[in-house]
Amino acid sequence: MTAIEASPRRREHVGVESRPLQPQLAPTPLLPVGFGVPASRWTHPATRFRELLRTEPYLFGPGVYDAMGAQLVMYHGYKAVYFSGYSFAIGHLGTTDMDLYSGPEIADGARRTVSALRKFQLTMAVGDPAKGVAPRHLDIPPVVVDMDAGYGNIFNVQRQTELLVTAGVAAAHLEDQVLPKRCGHIGGKALVPAQEMIGKLRMMRAVADDLGREDFTVIARTDGLSAIDAPEPARGLELAIDRACRYLESGIPDLVWCEFPTSDRGPVETFAAEVRKRFPEARFAFNWSSSFKWYLDPDPLTFAQLGDLGFKFIFITLGGQHAAGHGLSTLLSAMAEREEQGYIELQRREFEAGADIPTRSHHEFSGVPYHHELGKAYDAARLGREFVEELSPEKVV
Length: 397
Hints:
Layout: E1 25-26, E2 37-38, H1 45-55, E3 59-64, H2 67-75, E4 81-83, H3 85-93, H4 103-126, E5 143-146, H5 154-166, E6 171-175, H6 194-210, E7 217-222, H7 236-249, E8 255-258, H8 265-278, E9 284-287, H9 303-309, E10 311-316, H10 319-338, H11 340-351, H12 362-366, H13 368-377
Parallel strand pairs: 3-4, 3-10, 4-5, 5-6, 6-7, 7-8, 8-9, 9-10
Antiparallel strand pairs: 1-2
């Protein structure tokens, strides 16, 4: 039986073309004979995420909003991906984060992203044999998804959790705002009763368990620190700490997240310390938010410092969005001034010595060589190295 015919559950190590024998590489019928992927491909993302939370001092997930952004995160070796709701609102609707997209919309975006990462692992494992580009063996980072305030009552939460779990998402976070919710850094937030939030968390856990994913990670977020309205008389940090403790007391969330209004370290340290007085093993998530001017903070919190405080999952919600905006604005400004020369300048930066820009060849990044190689193995029409035009690499990407 060849590797193409073999079951995807086979785990024999294989030699990979253009590379020495690699440990923990396995064949799959989705690769041509002689190529392999990391055996971690068959570890469920939820299982992988829990293991990383257990073994890493902290886990960082760059914030993205589409499949390409997630693939770049994977290419550069990050161990997690954060699928941001605010970024999704901007990237797919061109609007702000005020509950303007539906749950199924973002769930479908997350589903396509998880699928794209699995495909990207295959395309990178082939490289480009015709051009001598070696295979690159990448682990698939687990995806953590924004679930906002659940898009309704417990039955909306039930549906959304099922959509995310069956999509292969590793974790999701739910917040305690009233609907329609808004970004944690937009004024006017109000909270639902704590018991209502706990009911939604219980439903998240119940759905994941029913689907056989007891390892799906549930993250509870509170916007208590900046809320202007809540059933309790307490406000500010006192309310946030109380809410976090009440959620942990339910035994449901694996991580709790308090949304902070600024980059000031004092409230962050106080929150973690006070919660851990009651729950010494509590673990936290932290939004190293794009809403803060970190570059003006004389003593910004580092990821390592946050890890020491118990913040096990750290993410920058709109990092990808800001980078895309900066990069495209730079190109458009250059082209507005210098027309085609502006684009030529971009290409020079992409191809300068030492640059590691995987998208500089959109054909390689999107897997054209993979499709030729596997298409040939499956007798697909007009696919194979013989159909690759022999054009000078000095002429085309």
